[in-house]
Each structure stands twice: as C-alpha cells, then as structure tokens.
Write the structure tokens for this entry.
Amino acid sequence: MTAEEFIKLRDFIYRKTGIYFEEHKKYYVESRIESRIKATGHDNFRSYFAWLRFDVTGQELQELINILTVNETYFFREYYQLKCFAEEILPELLEKKSKEKQQKIRVWSAGCSTGEEPYTLAIIMEEMLEDVERVTWEVHATDINTEVIEKAEIGLYSKRSVRLVPEEYKMRYFIRRGEFYEIIPELRKKVKFYQLNLMDAAAMRRMMDFDVIFCRNVLIYFDDASRRQVALYFYEALTEGGYIFLGHSESMSRITPIFKLRRFKNAFVYQK
Amino acid sequence: MQESHINELLNLMKNGRNESERVMAVLDLGEAKGKKVVDALIGQLEVETSRAVQEAIVSSLIKIGDRYVAESAAELLKNDDAYVRNAGVEILSILGDSALEVLEKMIKHPDKDVRQLAVNALGEGRLKEAPTLLRKVIAEDEDENVVAAAIEYLGEVGCGEEDREVIMRAANRFSSPFFDYVVKMAIKKLGD
C-alpha cells in the first residue's frame, strides 16, 4: 500500500466512522487491509478500494471496521470511563434520585459480549453503593448473540480477562478455579442477561428508564442509518439527563446531535 | 400499514403528549410508504422544534427510501435552516440509486449553494455513477467552491489518467491558494 493509498483509505474511514489512523498505524492498517483484499477476491488495493467505496450495502466497510477495531474484551477496560462513572456520575445520580425520592439506579450494558463489562459495572455499583441506604441498583446486559450471553451467565474468565481487576476485588468477587476466575453467585444474580437486537423496534421500546447506558465499541458495527436509529432508541430508553458511554474512538456527535456532550474530569460522556 | 393507523401516527407525530411519544410515532411511520407519509414527514421536519423528532424523521425517510423521498429531500437543500439542508444531503447520500436522477438534476441547479450540497451528497454516497457526475461538475461548473468540492471527492473515488486530466484542466480555470491546495491533494490521492 502506497502512502497515498493509505491517506485515501484513512480519510475515507475517518469521514465515515470518526476513527482516525495516524501515520504510524500504516503497517497495522496495511496488514488488515491485505487480508480483506484477499478475502474479497481482489488483486490490489485500487480495485478493492473502488469496490469498498461503492458497496451500496455498506457490508464491506463494516467488515473492514471490524478487523481494524478488533479488541479483546476484559474487566475494567477503558478505566478512565469507569472512574468517571463511579466517581462523578454515580454521586450525581444519587443526588438526583434523592431529590426525586427514587431508589433505583438502572444501568444497561448494550452489546455486553461475554459479560466482562456488565460484571465490572456490577462490581463498581456494589462498591460505590454498599453503604448508601435505601438505594438499589440493576445492571441489564444484552447482546444479539445468544452464545456470548450463555458464556456471560456462566461467568468464568481467564487470567488475561481479569488482569486489570484490583486484587482486593478479585478476592471479593471471584472464586479461583485453577487457571480461571469465576464470578461469585451473589454478583452473578445481580446482572440480568438477555438477548436483544438493538435494531428490533418492539424490543427496544421495552428498554426504558435507564440512568446510564454503556454501548462501547458496538455502534461501529452498524451502518450510518442504523446507527442513528439505535441512537434514537437509546435516547428514548434513558431517563431525562441520563448518560451514554461510547467507546473511546466513537463519537455520538457524528451519529446524531440529540445528545449533549458533558465534559467530566475523567472522561467525555453524552447526556440526554 | 392501514390508512387509519397511518393517520393515527401522523396525529401523534404532531400532537403526541410528549417528545417520546412523537419520536416513536415518527419511527413507526418509517414502516409506511406513500406520498402522503413522505410529505407529512418532510413538512414536519421543516417546522419541527425538537431535534429528537427531527432525527427520527430523517431516520424514517431513509427507511422509506424511494424515489419520491429523494425528490422531496432535494427540496430540503434549498432550506434556510442548515440542519434541514444537511439532513437533505444525508438522506440523498444514503438513498443510493433512488437518488441518482435527482442528483443529476441538482448538480445543474442555478443556485451554487444547492449545487455544492448536491456534490456533497454525491461524494458522500456510494453511487457507481458518482465519478462520472463529479467529472462533469469539475469540467462544467462555473463556481470555484463547487468545483473544489467535486475535486476533493474525485481524488478519493477516482483513478487513472482521465481524472487527473479533468482536475488539471480545472486548475487552469481557477486559481487561488485554496483551490491549488485542493488540486494538489486530489492529485496526490489519485497516485500514479
């Protein structure tokens, strides 16, 4: 891939997704592009790019974004966002709930995969709200893929998955099973896992009154039109003033202007 | 969708009890077809004060996505409100083939601002005919900004000698630091 081809591709991806690849990522992009060129039966970058650019289904762009953003999931991923949730958003929510004389905080992990994110959120809720009287919490965790939901419900994780979990929490919320770590039943029961397609209008309408939604690195897999639709469903699922966290390379402003961008000490978060 | 249900949704879109009810009614209208629904959505988009309802309207118009939507969206390019104009661009860029004829017409529009928006829709979209139409704009349009926008997109979607020649010919017609820069970048992207 020539430098010009890299720039052409990079600018296109940036315009479509907001994901920007610096020059030093050229090798990374190149190796993944080559696999897509091969997989789609093209001979060179030029013919592949023309095909990608005019693919009306948008499927190839999704495929490409998938391999360019592929990331394993693990506990306490993107720690600064979780810190913001725990130390800045939760206190604000508690104050709001107290004013409104409400007692429940509802959090949704949308696109929860094998459960690392919702269990992380559950640990945070447990830790932060332990001594707060009369406040209860719920973590809902959904994914379109029933296989990952099943794995999440089992709650068994590798050493690698829990590498960022503080030792203290590992002791409190996991049971060591040889090379693996199992979520304790008390915590497992507190997370409600179920299958959900974010594009299913009827199902999305049932999702309501959430104070915070985590939808990190999920919307990048949707096309432009679907992304907006899902963002609207999230908007409706949130309480007034509710928050939504996206992945660090994602931007809600590129999807829809309906959310406000709130700047906290630890992170930027979108608010209804 | 039954006529009575459509009427109910149209009523909810305008007079729903709250924003949420109106957004949901609009999203449901995306499942309907027909000029009546499209006209109502377009009309509401232009006067609507809730951004969430406007966004839902754009979403539903894209979902309906027929030629009549394209024709109606083209009219939005002339709107005074920048949000509405950009919504028109977005709808046209996503619609694909349904928007082709409309875009062919809009790149010849007497208003240069409308032509520029049409070029944006062409460039952002995935129409196979886009390079041909962009070349036409570059060769024929008399406005520097419209031509520059078309050159930027052709730098991305074009390839080969023909595109380089069209761009270089335009470089002889306009000369400003901005235009020279756009030409330089496009030529660079087109490569050898």
User: Anything to note?
Assistant: Residues 100 and 150 of chain B are 16 Å apart (CA to CA).
